[in-house]
Amino acid sequence: MTTVATPGRAAPRYFTWAFIVTGAGLLLGGLVGWAYTGTWAGVLSYFFICAVLAVLEISLSFDNAIVNANKLKTMRPEWQRRFLSWGILIAVFGMRIVFPLLIVVVAAGIGPVEALRLAASEPATYSRIMQDAHLPITAFGGTFLMMVALSYFFDPDKDIHWIGWIEAPMARYAAIRGIEIAVALAIAVLFSMLLPEAEGQAFMNAAIMGLLTFLAVEVLGGLIDSRSATATAASGGVGAFLYLEVLDASFSFDGVIGAFALSQNIFVIAIGLGIGAMYVRSMTIMLVEKGTLSEYRYLEHGAFYAILALSVIMYAQSLVHIPEVLTGLLGAGLIGVAYVSSLRCRAAE
Q1: How far, in Å, are 3, 70, 193, 243, 248 from residue 65 at the CA level?
Q2: Which pLDDT tens digit goes with each residue over 302-328?
Q3: H-only helix segments in the chain
Q4: Residue 48: exposed, middle, or buried by beta-carbon count in 10 A (0-12, 13-18, 19+)?
Q5: Are 224 and 239 in contact (CB under 8 A)?
Q6: Taking Cα atoms as reference points, which of 305, 237, 345 lies closest to residue 67?
Q7: Contact partners, residue 306, CB within 8 Å, separation at least 6
Q8: Percent of the chain beyond pLDDT 90?
């Protein structure tokens, strides 16, 4: 698990570890079902929920894999290996287990041990606390993802456009310093005004924190990498690693919160979403090694449109409930259209 795979192998072999984790995870999910219910019906129910959660995570993460691959291809080999080993451990253990516990610790003002006890013995109470924290989480994660997408489109050096009438003006206006920050803040203010005063203030505070986190990751990564001997050698180091970790966390917010609609058991949620995270890792490796992003020129555009759509959906969830399945289908649909457009472009060349 600690090395980047060898180029040229068949596509299914990229998913070897994902298949292994799927089998182990579903078996573990069944054991959790037996531990909580002591019945075969409970085993099958927990087994099924783990499988559904894994599919949900995969459907929500096509764009995540593409953006990971785009960043990963510029990283030095040792940092590629670190992201694909340490990074997946952080994604599975940190975001799917520690993060929900920390939310409960902060929201309920209790200790980590008590939060873990709630998760294990009082899942309904645990789920209620998680749902109560939904508003600031969506504002924070939505703002970070929006900045990721806007930074891609507001790029003066971007010369390949998929939807030209949208992207060409954005690339041209990128010369205006801070325009992507202004756009993100304007959208955040608009949504906060649609909420009751207290909720609107909480939404805006979390949105500003999401913006500051994005800027902090950019600045911190640049400062750390600039300590290296040359800018070229540093371009794919700690900064890129930090960026990808926070990006993965932002993608995970929606899936973790939405998973509580299917199960209130944190261990089942961690298993199901962890399985999905392994497929994201496998897809990332395959995209990097096969050069898919350069071969299909609009695939990356589709991923960033999907990220922008996800950020707006996360904002909209502060007002209305939007099923996670719809979110996943929208993202997959945008990437699918971009893929077809790439094929047509290749055929016309």
Answers
A1: 17, 9, 34, 14, 9
A2: 888 988 998 999 899 889 888 777 777
A3: 16-37, 40-60, 62-72, 77-82, 88-89, 99-108, 112-121, 123-132, 134-153, 164-173, 179-193, 197-225, 231-234, 238-259, 266-290, 292-295, 299-316, 324-348
A4: middle
A5: yes
A6: 305
A7: 62, 63, 330, 331, 332, 334, 335
A8: 21
CA distance 190 to 207: 12
Residue 333, pLDDT above cutoff 90:
no
Q: What is the pLDDT of residue 227?
A: 56
- Binned at pLDDT 50, 70 and 90, residue 253 comes out as low
**What does 84-127 look like in DSSP terms, one character per residue?**
IIIIHHIIIIIIIIIHHHHHHHHHHT--HHHHHHHHHH-HHHHH
Q: What pLDDT, on a 0 to 100 scale, did the predictor assign at position 234?
A: 42
Q: What was the pLDDT predicted at 232?
A: 43
Q: What one-character DSSP code corresponds to residue 177?
A: T
**DSSP calls for 7-45:** TT--GGGGGHHHHHHHHHHHHHHHHHHHHHH-SHHHHHH
Whether 160 shows a pLDDT value over 50: the answer reads yes
Question: Can you tell me the mean pLDDT for 114-120?
Answer: 82
CA 159-160-166 angle, to 5 degrees, is: 90
- Cβ atoms of residues 51 and 259 within 8 Å: no
Name the residue with higher pLDDT: 89 or 235. Answer: 89
pLDDT band at 5 (very low <50, low <70, confident <90, very high): very low
DSSP state of 5: P
Six-digit token string for 319: 């007002």
Query: Which helix (H) or strand (E) covers residue 235, if one does?
Result: none
Q: Report residue 264 CA to chain centroid gap.
A: 21
CA-CA distance, 223 to 301, in Å (whole number)? 28
